[in-house]
């Protein structure tokens, strides 16, 4: 008999999770602020609880899939006021997005109410939940993940990061940093090409090839992870000077075409900073020093954003 699971939050993500849990044979109890959103999963076999307290009481494992952490307090806070022990002995697994600090606060809040707490970040869109390609970052007590691995694995393959409850969301946001910036660059480049009559249908296949080629370059050619680990930036192929000149050309081309320069100008600023600090001959990875926090005793850091340079 598979363990019962409660799932609170029935947006597209929560509904996909319920379907995966049901398919694996877990009895699933659900609750959602807007009850009508439960219709499909109830038709698929889930039980709709009348109140959040009833939903929490139904299973030791309670998964939350909400817009943010505030929604968890809005839903479970009243339950803990009317019944102070409502969460005692439960395992809350919050798979909602929010900042790492909000995750840490959530873990402390759960502990105050006698609950165990695991945080997670789902790394795929809702339609991919439960597929081979799906994976979820977790942080918090490792034993909680082990205790509930069977149920949680139905959502996606768990990837455990460490005990700090903020880590899962930090890793989620780091990945989305890459994702969102890449998507914005794709749209910028498409707008630039459009000014010369290159249609998006012709532009995007070319541009996407650069995205996949970048992954190959990082994995095979330069091994930047090892360079960053060693704190060394040997420059031979893609130096700060060469990449910085290219960044400058992109800004110039954008200006000439009347396309917004915000994104390429921000990129250029990192290369300009590295060159101005004497790193022109280093590998492009040197620009990380323009992004790192300013720390006393370090000769570099505190890059282009003037608010980070201190007084
Ligand atoms: N959708 C995806 O493909 C995807 C991918 C990766 C990660 N995620 C993350 O997964 C989480 C859920 O995503 P989703 O797409 O299912 O989001 P969504 O459609 O925005 O659903 C959010 C859920 O939160 C509830 N909610 C929000 N604020 C609330 C409040 N103050 N009180 C009570 N309930 C509240 C909503 O209730 P109502 O139905 O009553 O509005 C709904 O059940 C998000 O954190 C999202 O970032 C989503």
Commentary on this structure:
It is a single chain. Helix 1 links the parallel strand 1 and strand 2. The protein has helices spanning 12-23, 39-43, 52-58, 69-82, 100-112, 142-147, 149-153, 167-194, 200-222, 224-230, 240-257, 262-276, and strands at residues 5-8, 28-31, 47-48, 61-64, 91-94, 116-122, 135-139, 157-162. The mean pLDDT is 93. The chain is built from twelve helices and eight strands. It has 311 residues and is of the alpha/beta class. It is elongated, with a radius of gyration of 24 Å. The protein binds NADP nicotinamide-adenine-dinucleotide phosphate. The site of NADP nicotinamide-adenine-dinucleotide phosphate has 21 residues, from helix 1 and helix 4.
The percent range for strand residues is 5-15%
Write down the CATH topology of the largest domain: Rossmann fold
Counted beta strands: 8
Highest CATH level, the class of the largest domain: Alpha Beta
Task: Supply the CATH superfamily name of the largest domain.
Answer: NAD(P)-binding Rossmann-like Domain
Any idea what the shape is? elongated
Helix coverage percent: 40-55%
Structural class: alpha/beta
- Termini, distance in Å? 63 Å
Rg over CA atoms = 24 Å
Q: What about the largest sheet?
A: 8 strands, mixed
Return the string of H and E elements.
EHEHEHEHEHEEHHEHHHHH
In the CATH hierarchy, what is the architecture of the largest domain at level 2? 3-Layer(aba) Sandwich
Q: Averaging pLDDT over every residue, what do you get?
A: 93
The low-confidence parts are: none
**SS field, number of helical segments:** 12
Overall number of domains: 2
Task: Enumerate the strands of the largest sheet in spatial order, edge to edge or round the barrel.
Answer: 3-2-1-4-5-6-7-8
List the ions, cofactors and other small molecules found in this model: NADP nicotinamide-adenine-dinucleotide phosphate
């Amino acid at each position: 008999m598979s363990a019962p699971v409660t799932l609170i939050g029935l947006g597209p993500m929560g509904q996909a999770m319920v379907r995966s849990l049901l398919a694996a044979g877990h009895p699933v109890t659900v609750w959602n602020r807007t009850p009508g959103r439960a219709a499909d999963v109830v038709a698929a076999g889930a039980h709709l609880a009348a109140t959040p307290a009833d939903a929490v009481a139904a299973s030791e494992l309670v998964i939350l899939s909400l817009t943010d952490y505030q929604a968890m307090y809005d839903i479970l806070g009243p339950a803990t006021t009317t019944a102070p022990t409502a969460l005692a002995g439960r395992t809350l697994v919050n798979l909602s997005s929010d900042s790492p600090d909000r995750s840490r606060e959530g873990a402390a809040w759960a502990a105050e109410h006698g609950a165990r707490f695991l945080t997670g970040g789902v790394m795929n869109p809702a339609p991919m939940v439960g597929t081979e390609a799906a994976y979820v970052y977790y942080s918090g007590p490792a034993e909680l993940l082990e205790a509930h691995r069977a149920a949680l694995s139905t959502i996606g393959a768990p990837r455990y990061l460490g005990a700090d409850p903020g880590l899962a969301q930090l890793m989620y946001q780091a990945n989305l940093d890459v994702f969102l910036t890449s998507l914005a660059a794709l749209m910028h480049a498409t707008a630039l090409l459009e000014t010369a009559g290159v249609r998006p249908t012709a532009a995007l296949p070319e541009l996407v090839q650069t995205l996949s080629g970048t992954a190959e370059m990082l994995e095979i050619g330069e091994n930047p992870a090892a360079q960053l680990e060693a704190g060394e930036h040997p420059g031979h192929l893609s130096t700060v000077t060469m990449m910085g000149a290219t960044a400058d050309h992109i800004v110039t081309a954008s200006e000439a075409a009347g396309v917004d320069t915000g994104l390429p100008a921000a990129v250029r600023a990192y290369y300009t900073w590295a060159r101005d600090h004497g790193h022109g001959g280093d590998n492009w990875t040197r620009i990380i020093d323009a992004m790192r926090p300013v720390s006393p005793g370090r000769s570099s850091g505190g890059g282009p954003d003037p608010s980070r340079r201190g007084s």
